[in-house]
Amino acid sequence: MQLKEKGFTVAKKKVAIITYFYPPSSGPAVQRISKLIKYLDKERYEVTVYTSVFQKKEDYSIFEDVLNVKKVFYIKHLNILKGPYKNKFIHKAACFFRLFFVPEVQIFFALKCRKAVLKGDEYDVIFTTGGPHSNHLVGLYVKKRKPDIKWIVDFRDPWVEFSYRKKVPGLNLIHSYLEKKVIDNADVRIAVTSTYASRFEERYNKKFHLIYNGYDPEEFKEFKSFSRENKNKLIFLHAGTMLRQRSWGLPYLEKILAAASIDYEIHFYGFTDDRYLSKYKHMNIKNYRNVPKSELLNIYQRADILLLMQGQDKLLSGNVAGKLMEYVGTQKPVLAFTYPGGEAAEIIKKHDLGHAVDINQLDKAVDFVRAVRAGRFRAYKAPKIFDRRYIAGQIASLM
Is the dihedral of CA 152, 157, 159, 165 positive or negative? Predict the structure, then answer.
């Protein structure tokens, strides 16, 4: 199809997006793509998606974001060691054996997907997003056979830097080789945090574009930014997966709340392993199930402080959880337990989003909680760089 622009006929760019995660699955990886598709100019871009047939049936409402897609190919592939397993021994064994698949067990998707893409349309652009980084091997395969196609590689996560890659001697050499091949052959390289972009650039002397994850302003059009419904009790809310390595902040949160001397409840929404929360039941924690995005937006309105909990590992200092960007859309105060001085903490400080906890200065976190309790926290203006419309424009400019 074609459109007219200033007297000239301009053909639509045909874009192939390679993503393992896609609706009805949910989470930041899905939203990275669904919101890009939603805000790409449909008069300029014709999008085809290649994804795995094995999607968790979590949130069908996200399909509303991807109505502009020309076609979706759900690739059937070998799907092994998928978990999670209730038996602790089986779970650990499966995690160990997954280490031997390079880049990861989703390589079986890549092997099938790459052939499907070559049999597809004559695309102008191929956009691969990872992890899983097996997606990038699809782009590498296609680029080698169709050198005129523009390949954009989107790194939502590091590759060789992940510590678990080093648990099997020798395999990290293969990871390093593949990462270099991908970065050397891509036409455009994107990273979702400044830290990741800088590390890649230092390692490979290749330009990386910084394009953060973000929030969708349409979802917050009728949102009450900061209004405390319960004047006597503070409601803390954590949305998303709660892993063991993220639970380190709970004992410090306990100390902060005890020192603040306030009435409170802590609500967890999403996958949370009860083993990590069981010893904190006395903290008035309520653990809820996964809920659709539309329902979660209503739940946000009842919260007073949004909790961000990330790992303490130095390698994760560049991690900026997609959940933080969604929190930005609410304009509600954020209390973060993250790597001290890391990128997430710096973003919170720079844009006055709330408070990043320093475990050596808990008194400042106590003062912050008391300020929210007293109504002294003002709603901030959501920064433009985290707006999904702006982000889609950034990516489109690279196509």
Answer: negative
How far apart (Å, rounded) are the C-alpha atoms in residues 25 and 59?
6
Length of the chain: 399
Instruction: State the Cα–Cα distance between residues 300 and 331, nearest whole angstrom.
Output: 10
Predicted confidence (pLDDT) per residue in 298-313, tens digit: 899 889 999 999 888 7
Among candidate residues 307, 299, 304, the one with its CA nearest the CA of residue 355:
307
Rounded Cα–Cα distance for residues 353 and 214 (Å):
14
According to the model, what pLDDT value does residue 84 have?
65
Looking at residue 385, its amino acid is I
What is the average pLDDT score of the chain? 90
HSE-CB at 97 with a 13 A cutoff on CA atoms is: 10
201-244: per-residue pLDDT in tens?
999 999 999 999 999 999 988 776 656 666 778 999 999 888 77
What residue ranges define each of the domains in the chain, with the CATH number in brackets? 2-215+387-398 (3.40.50.2000), 217-381 (3.40.50.2000)
The model's pTM is 0.91
The arithmetic mean of pLDDT across residues 306-328, rounded, is 89
- Would you tell me how many other CB atoms lie within 10 Å of the CB of residue 186? 22
